[in-house]
Design brief:
The structure is a homodimer. Chain A is of the alpha+beta class. The first copy, chain A, folds into three domains: 9-205, Aldehyde ferredoxin oxidoreductase, N-terminal domain (Aldehyde Ferredoxin Oxidoreductase,  A, domain 1); 236-424, Aldehyde Ferredoxin Oxidoreductase Protein, subunit A, domain 2 (Orthogonal Bundle); 436-628, Aldehyde Ferredoxin Oxidoreductase Protein, subunit A, domain 3 (Orthogonal Bundle). Helices cover 38% and strands 12% of the residues of chain A. Chain A contains 25 helices and 16 strands. In chain A, strands 2-1-6-3-4-5 form a six-stranded mixed β-sheet. In chain A, helix 2 packs parallel to helix 22 and helix 20 (485-503) crosses helix 22 (536-556). Chain A is globular. Chains A and B meet through helix 1, helix 20, helix 21, helix 22 and helix 23 of A and helix 1, helix 20, helix 21, helix 22 and helix 23 of B.
């Protein structure tokens, strides 16, 4: 029985207000699946090299996948992708929630947005149709207000809304896109891209059933999975992602004080357990997922925190907590709420502020530069104030809104050594000095320092976790601090795995080794959904295809080997915690990177993919783009 | 539940008469599985570079796999491997039948044979034990006699015997090894290696049950397979492999008259259908297989043919039939019997004789050179006579016993243009000019022109066959005559697949697309048998590992890019049949080869694997061997 996967792509040109629908041939879906990979398929074809990320020529893509919107846990993510205003390279970020599945039910796998509206607009997508509508009345409003207004205006409370906030409107370089006010495409500054197009929101309502090739088999797999998932084995459901903050601190790996140390004395105060005992009011979740790791928090004092914005993830409690030496959970929760209100990526904001605080401590910035704000580490009031000023690009906030790389350039005076970013993307809250493969992952990630591009963890490096990744051919347990060729191989294989998960919009917390879905079962499930006689081999080839397409995109835009480097701080020893003294040895790093390039089939020195590798992956059509580098 | 795959390797040193047993760690089994790959693991470690293939230093390995001996169809093959006296590179050849499963039941996965006996011996393996025994009384005897003697001597009629015949004793360079007198390790001259060690036979008797991780699941898969196999869909069971001779001739691809043409007017006379209507007396099979493609033939006149030697395969009806313009099926059956009696590879013999016949036609050889034999094409009596003379290395037979490459060198006078071999291995009976990927397969095969190393067929290149190989990521139907980059990619992916099947000793006629076993089911079956949480990804990596190990072995022995070439004839147009005029364009070939090298992660010009590729495959330990090239 042949199965034709059918899907539609919505195309919107905001300049001409033209809307059209395209139905790609099935092979496009099978080779690119969705997410970052399918986005790259369009970006590489249609985005002119060296376009201004904040100009009308940039293309913003919202992309689900052939697997999106199903009742299995984890298949709810969609990718937002464009040329990034932070890195000037490939930018992408995924968000869970309900918006992706809703788009799919509305009849579309993806939306490709070009051009720029002459005045603020929003997009209304429903039942195989789309309209561009005026959003002048929404411009400048907080995100919760906009959500409420749109639902009222469109007369349906079940409408799902992906939107930017005032930060996106104001082109804060790390502005985010949110759906349901709490599921976030955080990284790469895609909210600024959306803002530059004067597109405030995309409201979606879908009522179609998603077609499935073999519903019985698909449901059987989900049932089995549900039954095998007992007692929240990792604690993720009960304690959320923030559960790991104290664990990481005890292991010397909690980013603290702008990565100066890996130990934070108040780590318990900001962890998931404390959150549960204090401000937690509910557990949120995403479409189809029974893990329920999302948080909902409420506080009255010292800050009033509105639960509509959910609650802080681990990344947030570290980025605007330990990284700034802030141990006040209510302040962090307030910061999380403000970032939600304004549409700011908490990670990038935290890392940018940590840069400013260290510059302030070292006297490079003074209160004259900060408009009087006392930017000492630990000052949570200053942190909260900065969010508002950044969102409004007000005074000192205008500088911070540029992100650490550009801000450091403007400041000069050696400030760049406190700017923790890779390719302009601020570092997320994981410590490469404690898990060496992450140093490589961050350096070579096409989106810069991005923990979801290649989520590595010491967990993988223990025998227990390894059993789960045996299907990838990773058989050797490797200590976290190992940085050998074996570690590089592990990284290469895992990268292809995570690139695949990205392509199908699957949440890493639902797939092994983090979550319950065994790797080979994901393949089986994919077969049931699509009807394709596919295999892990074919799926990991998609992962490899992604890595190569993203690499070619970046090379074309001028990013290459010279940019695959770590901030100087990571080459310096950790100053505190049980890993005190650990550093990334530059020599070891250079060797690992060369080995990585070579293992990928790229030139070991320049990191340029060979035309043979591209042809092997059936993406020979991008070979000509290499010559534009 | 953890499962430890346990296996034992038997080591025999014929010079010192020392026997020992080794138990490799499980990871060795998981990375190398068995067959050619596990053989290369030992050859690369233990065989000194530049050893004389026929000297005591060569190492001869008989290797089953982690999957061998099971009740599913196809898992009965074992590999014989050594440095080849035909190619001076990696030599291997697989045989089905019962010997491999019997060895496994006797307690061993493999036998590694070193040294050389001072006088003829045989090996007697049973119940975890082995003995070296005198074989002086067997030396010089026909294979059927030896089988009978040994069974009588050891008092057990169920003993399985792998042996050489007089041709192996006499170091005929294409002597074979046979088990049950009709299952043959034909290619690469491994019978000569065995003869050089004065090892006439290995008698095996096993009574152990083979351990299986999940018997219920394994049996379920086999049951399902058996039930889905109805009515001999391909005709392979009813008509045997020789069924294709007339089909190929009609398609212009039946090697005829030393590859001058692809059409043989008597093709019907030598095909499987005619065989069934005339001399067929029974259908044989291999351990565990319900297809029963093997033949048993009997004739009284004009030649008496003993059914104990089975019957001719397709390769044989072409090699000593159409290739020599012989259309007499009884003569072919007699030739098949004689090759079985003496232990000669029918393919290599046929291609060698075709070389001699064309040299004779062109006047380069005369009846003075041939000891009076009238070597004109079509002379089947001369063909039969030559088998005996080759086996005994008698007069002109001594020259032919060297194979076409060496014989042509001895003859001189431009004879080499009629010598159809690659790296010294005579061409088997498939026509690269009619299926272009085969030109590449033959040229780069580590064992030279070897149709089982990379069995390509136009069948793959039609949409119907393609569906079966979708799990390999091959989605595009490609015409047989296409020689584009897409074809090279298809070849690269299929090669990894077939290398995997080789590693697990699986018969290609039982696996998709030739046979009933779907690719993803083979993986599922592997999981049930070994208990490993493995995947097609991990398994194809073994296939890739094989290709790289074999390549490094050959480079180390002096074989490289200069040897990856086709005989001149294939660059000339076919002179007859519906593909008249087709040739392998040297330019296209060179481009395809460069693309292949590059896609493999090898230097596109020299074909040398990069150290990065070897490290990626976890065979970094062979990197130092590259510097010996």
């Amino acid at each position: 029985m042949a199965f034709g996967y059918n899907g539609k792509i919505l195309r919107v040109d905001l300049s001409t207000r033209k809307i059209s629908v395209e139905e790609p041939e099935e092979k496009v879906y099978r080779r690119y699946l969705g997410g970052g990979t399918l986005s790259l398929y369009y970006l590489l074809r249609e985005l002119k090299p060296h376009s201004d990320p904040l100009g009308p020529e940039n293309i913003l893509i919202f992309c689900t996948s052939v697997m999106s919107g199903l009742t299995a846990p984890g298949f709810n993510k969609y990718t937002a992708a464009a040329k990034s205003p932070l890195t000037s390279g490939f930018g992408e970020s995924e968000a869970g929630g309900w918006w992706g599945p809703e788009l799919k039910s509305a009849g579309f796998d993806a939306i490709i947005i070009k051009g720029k509206a002459s005045s603020p607009v929003y997009l209304w997508v429903h039942d195989d149709q789309a309209e561009i509508r005026d959003a002048s009345h929404l411009w400048g409003k907080m995100t919760a207000e906009v959500q409420e207004s749109l639902r009222k205006e469109l007369g349906d409370n079940r409408i799902r809304i992906a939107q930017i906030g005032p930060a996106g409107e104001n082109l804060v370089r790390y502005a985010c896109i949110l759906n349901e006010l709490k599921h976030v495409n955080g990284r790469a500054g895609l909210g600024a891209v959306m803002g530059s197009k004067k597109l405030r929101a995309i409201a979606v309502r879908g009522k179609k059933n998603i077609e499935v090739f073999n519903r019985e088999s698909a449901l059987g797999i989900v049932k089995q999975l549900r039954e095998s998932y007992v007692d929240d084995p990792s604690g993720l459901g009960q304690l959320g992602t923030a559960r790991v903050a104290p664990i990481l601190s005890a292991g010397g790996m909690l980013p603290t004080k702008n990565f100066i140390t890996g130990f934070f004395e108040k780590a318990e105060d900001i962890g998931g357990k404390r959150m549960k005992e204090t401000i937690l009011t509910g557990r949120g979740t995403c479409h189809g997922c029974f893990i329920r790791c999302k948080r909902e928090v409420k506080a009255e004092k010292p800050y009033e925190v509105d639960p509509i914005y959910g609650g802080p993830e681990y990344e947030t409690v570290a980025a605007i907590g330990s990284l700034l030496e802030i141990g006040n959970l209510e302040a962090i929760a307030k910061g999380n709420e403000l970032c939600g209100k304004y549409g700011i990526d908490t990670i990038s904001f935290g890392t940018t502020l940590a840069f400013a605080m260290e510059s302030y401590e070292k006297g490079i910035l003074t209160s004259k530069d900060t408009d009087g704000l006392d930017l000492k580490f630990g000052n949570h009031e200053a942190m909260l104030e900065c969010i508002e000023r950044v969102a409004r690009r007000e005074g000192f906030g205008d500088l911070l809104a540029e992100g650490p790389e550009m801000a450091a350039k403007k400041i000069g005076k050696g400030a760049e050594k406190f700017a923790l970013h890779i390719k302009g993307q601020p570092l997320p809250m994981h410590e490469p000095r404690g898990k060496k493969s992450l140093a490589l992952a961050y350096a070579v990630s096409p989106t810069g320092a991005d923990h979801l591009e290649n989520p590595h963890d010491p967990f993988f490096e223990k025998e227990a976790g390894l059993i789960d990744i045996h299907p990838l051919g990773i058989l050797d347990p490797l200590p976290s601090l190992d940085f050998s060729t074996h570690k590089v191989r592990m990284f290469v294989y895992l990268q292809q795995y995570y690139n695949w998960l990205n392509s199908i919009g699957m949440c890493i917390f639902t797939a092994k080794p983090f979550g319950p879905f065994p790797i080979t079962k994901i393949v089986e499930y994919s077969r049931a959904i699509t009807g394709w006689d596919t295999s892990l081999w074919e799926m990991l080839k998609v992962g490899e295809r992604f890595a190569n397409m993203a690499r070619v995109f970046n090379l074309r835009e001028g990013l290459g080997e010279k940019d695959d480097r770590l901030p100087e701080r990571l080459h310096q020893p950790l100053e505190g915690g049980v890993l005190k003294g650990e550093r990334i040895d530059p020599e070891e790093f250079a060797q690992a990177r060369e080995m990585y390039y070579g293992m990928m089939g790229w030139d070991p020195q320049s990191g340029v993919p060979s035309k043979y590798k591209l042809e092997e992956l059936d993406i020979g059509w991008i070979v000509p783009q290499l010559s534009r580098t």
